[in-house]
Amino acid sequence: MEDIKIQGFDFALINEYFVELERQGPGSPEATVRALGFIDNLATESKIADLGCGTGGQTMVLAQNTKASITALDLFPGSIEKLNASAGKLGLQDRVKGIVGSMDALPFENEEFDLIWSEGAIANIGFEKGLNHWKSFLKKGGFLAVTYESWFTEERPAEIEKFWLDAVPEMDTIGHNVSIMQKAGFLPVGVFTLPETCWTDTYFTPQKSAQETFLKKHAGNKTVEAFIAYMRHEAELYSQYKQYYGYVFYIGKKL
Ligand SMILES: C[S@@+](CC[C@H](N)C(=O)[O-])C[C@H]1O[C@@H](n2cnc3c(N)ncnc32)[C@H](O)[C@@H]1O
Questions:
Q1: I want to staple 50 with a disulfide (CB 3.0 to 4.6 A). Which of 31, 72, 92, 226 is the partner?
Q2: How far, in whole angstroms, is CA 242 from its chain's centroid?
Q3: Ligand 1 atom showing the smallest separation from residue 103 Cα
Q4: Is residue 224 within 6 Å of ligand 1 at its C-beta?
Q5: Spacing, Cα 121 to ligand 1 middle (Å)
Q6: What is the CATH number of the domain that holds 55?
């Protein structure tokens, strides 16, 4: 795991920073609940997988709004520890289990799940590859709900295009992503863009104080300074170019 780099930064460093935050990507309880509204196959015996769950912000919302059992998977052990502790505090430990694993080699049975969920994480495997790999773990008629970075317009300024294509080389328009979903064998049942508050209120704002703390903890560390500068740049670019891109929820039913 030490060798993995995202945008040139060590996976371990990124996670040490994000593990202190409730969410590791844009999103909100309201958006999670809205997406759940498109899914109509869940019962007490249903099984949900939450892939790239982080510390479990959305996992707890899923648990509180369904009766299903949830397996939440992330590559970073620190996040899984936190997730399992939160499940215990909320009395959800019988239905929510966090496990360490990789989304590109899932330790599950074929057609095990009624619903596969993933917020802000599918870019780590690739949208098309993720849909195709994950599909085999879903029952026929099961649902998939993912958020993914998407372009809102056909054209955009070079500065923002470069920033995001460096981070997510396959990033594309909503129309293109829906067609990928269809080609992968899903009926698209819901698509909506996350509101700006999912970036500002739940993602960028909580990072401000976390950044100060992190810089103090690693005083003099140039890599940490560069990482925090990168995170601040991401927030600045968002406020400048938010009309061109955002996270989109894609919800599909396995045919
Ligand atoms: C942007 S965060 C989103 C976390 C959470 N779903 C949220 O919305 O707050 C992406 C997550 O994907 C995880 N991740 C990255 N590569 C992974 C992989 N190959 N397998 C499983 N998890 C991975 C990271 O550790 C991180 O927790």
A1: 72
A2: 19
A3: 20
A4: no
A5: 5
A6: 3.40.50.150
